[in-house]
Amino acid sequence: MNRFGDKEVAQYFCFASLVVCVELRPGDVLLFNPHVQHSLSQKTKAYEGDRVHVSTIYIKTKHVNGNDVDAELTQEELMAM
Q: What pLDDT, in 10s, does the model give residues 24-80?
């Protein structure tokens, strides 16, 4: 297998206040609380000569569920469960 099939670690996503680093490989998705201080490491040596792209998307809870946890689900939403 090539290195993309083996998915070597490309970068580390770090939470300094928690003293935790998460290994990131190609195709990984990481959901986290953006209010916790975080950072992204440089590329690892395995990807030194490659372009590595990291996308970050922030979504507010009011966009996801209207920020109303007491709202009843519609029939369509219940069917999707």
A: 998 888 888 888 999 999 999 999 888 888 888 877 766 665 666 677 888 888 887
**Cα angle vertex 58, ends 80, 14, to 5°?**
115
- Would you call 8 helix, strand, or coil by DSSP? coil
C-alpha torsion 61→33→55→24, nearest 10 = -140
pTM for the structure as a whole: 0.65
17: helix, strand or coil: helix
Contact 37, 16 (CB under 8 A): yes
